[in-house]
Amino acid sequence: MDDLQRAAQLLSQAKNAVAFTGAGISTASGIPDFRSHGSGLWNGVDPLAVASIFGFRQNPQAFYNWIRPLARILATAQPNAAHYALATLEQQGLLHAVITQNIDMLHERVGNKVIFELHGHLREATCTHCFAVYPAEPIINQFLCDGQVPRCPGCNGVIKPNVILFGEQLPFAEFHAAQEAARQADLMVIIGSSLEVAPASDIPLLAARNGARLIVLNLEPTPADVFAHIVIRANAAEVLPEIVNCLETTA
Ligand code: NAD
């Protein structure tokens, strides 16, 4: 039996499987991840200067200049076969939740219902002065046109998308619910994450400590590989549909 068949078998036997996803599940949608060589969003920038809350407060224009190419891609990105595979697994009752570090909302777009977005999302944006909340899409579209830092129509404060920057707390309710899902899981499938960003990266370890088996599906080695039952080094957009196929042919 190969690794994909073994992964399918673990999924079919699990009572409470949970997926944990990172930027690597969306690279096949054309969205670059943060750390892969060449395509990574960190190449040539100081993360703390542009993508921390401290950097944002000091120089929001630098943040917006850095995020602009990504925002352009995100505005038109479509879900890929890996996202669809996770939606199929949830519909079949084989996946109970998706815990994601991604802000791209592609799990929601394909119809997954139980999603914990640990690092926020691009659905809304908030004024950093008066805390008014706005739908993000028109704000991002305007910014893509003029490149200017978005300002609050009410108080002229700087608007920040509801994504978590370095130095910010994770959304408490979301993180707490994700931890609970990890504690209850008997199988966690980790897909496309370097597991380098804490505290999100602690979630798979929490699952393992509470008895969950781990499957790691990632192009490069991760710190969770040593705890994993199965490590698959391959493109998630190719492999996840194959795992779903294995499940369907053995059902
Ligand atoms: P990361 O960039 O640190 O790691 C991505 C991992 O995915 C790498 O180890 C890489 O080898 C692997 N990978 C890339 N393409 C793959 C593929 N097709 N199949 C399988 N594996 C693949 O990303 P991370 O661990 O998610 O953490 C960093 C932060 O990146 C998160 O906070 C997240 O919010 C942010 N981010 C999100 C998006 C998005 O929403 N799509 C995009 C870029 C960054």
| Range of strand content | 15-25%
For CATH, the homologous superfamily of the largest domain is named as TPP-binding domain
Bound molecules: nicotinamide-adenine-dinucleotide
- What structural class is derived from the secondary structure elements? alpha/beta
CATH topology of the largest domain: Rossmann fold
In brief, what are we looking at here?
The chain is α/β, with parallel strands linked by helices and 251 residues long.
Task: Characterize the structure shown.
- With 251 residues, the chain is of the alpha/beta class.
- The chain folds into two domains: 154 residues, TPP-binding domain (Rossmann fold); 87 residues, SIR2/SIRT2 'Small Domain' (2-Layer Sandwich), CATH 3.30.1600.
- It has ten helices and nine strands.
- The strands form two sheets. A six-stranded parallel sheet has the order 3-2-1-7-8-9, sandwiched between helices. The protein has a three-stranded antiparallel sheet with strand order 5-4-6.
- The two termini are 16 Å apart.
- The model has no long low-confidence stretch (mean pLDDT 93).
- The structure holds nicotinamide-adenine-dinucleotide.
- The site of nicotinamide-adenine-dinucleotide (NAD) has 28 residues, from helix 10.
